[in-house]
Amino acid sequence: MLTEVEAANVATVDEYRRIPRILRLNVAGQPVDWVSWQEAVCLYAREIVIWTLGDPVLHIRGGHSRLDSTQSAIDIHSIIACNGRVVFPSVSVPPLTNQALFGRDRNTCLYCGGHFSDADLTRDHVAPTSRGGRDTWHNCVAACRRCNHYKGNRLPDECGLQLLALPYVPNFSEYLALINSGRILGDQMDFLKKSFGANSRLLH
Ligand SMILES: [Zn+2]
């Protein structure tokens, strides 16, 4: 997949949205974050990108040289490892967001097994917060509105419900995949998958 962008001159908002994000690794090859292609261009221009993986996804054409009128160009790869300041993932436990939680549970209600869009899912606290349950990855699951309403303020075994899978904390690589779901490229997913935890539901 090769998209050509004319000197950052992207015509429509829709085209902006279609441009994939670039997976940034630190010098040790650990995934750190997603960056926009504009940020990636800056990293290339500052010669911070030390190696790349994956296919080139964008070909950026710059200005013409006044000396010989050649045009500068940069190929942006889907995965870039960056030198300079060593950036580590800033947190060991990824932030719990609904988007990442629903992604972890594969958009499945963990009580009835139905498949739902994000808009039709809720964050269910297995042990209700009113009874001391915490707002953590281990105590939260995706649940459809019907199951969440039915369960109410009870524990699953108080109302005959059973969790279809155990909640877990995704590691940072899995978290990066979850927050970019839908826009992630095949080679980026393959790279991240290598460092998912063994319990990751995205592997099965
Ligand atoms: Zn349900």
Q: What this model shows, in words?
A:
This protein has 204 residues and is of the alpha/beta class. It folds into two domains: 1-89 and 177-204, no CATH class; 98-158, DNA Binding (I), subunit A. It contains six helices and seven strands, in the order βαββαββαββααα. Strand 2 (22-25) and strand 3 (31-35) form a beta hairpin. The chain is elongated and about 80 Å long. The chain starts with a strand and ends in an 11-residue tail after the last helix. The chain binds zinc ion. Zinc ion binds next to strand 7 and helix 4.
Question: Any chance you could write out the topology, listing elements then pairs?
Answer:
Layout: E1 3-5, H1 13-18, E2 22-25, E3 31-35, H2 37-45, E4 49-64, E5 71-82, H3 98-104, E6 121-125, E7 140-144, H4 145-151, H5 172-179, H6 186-193
Parallel strand pairs: 1-4, 2-5
Antiparallel strand pairs: 2-3, 4-5, 6-7
Helix pairs in contact: 3-5
The chain binds zinc ion.
Zinc ion (ZN) binds next to strand 7 and helix 4.
In short:
The protein has helices at residues 13-18, 37-45, 98-104, 145-151, 172-179, 186-193; strands at 3-5, 22-25, 31-35, 49-64, 71-82, 121-125, 140-144.
The count of strands amounts to: 7
Domain count: 2
Bound molecules: zinc ion
Radius of gyration: 21 Å
Strand content: 15-25%
| Range of helix content | 10-25%
Main sheet record: 5 strands, mixed
**What strand order characterises the main sheet?**
1-4-5-2-3
Which series of helices and strands comes N to C? EHEEHEEHEEHHH
Summing up helix and strand content along with how strands pair, one would put the structural category as: alpha/beta
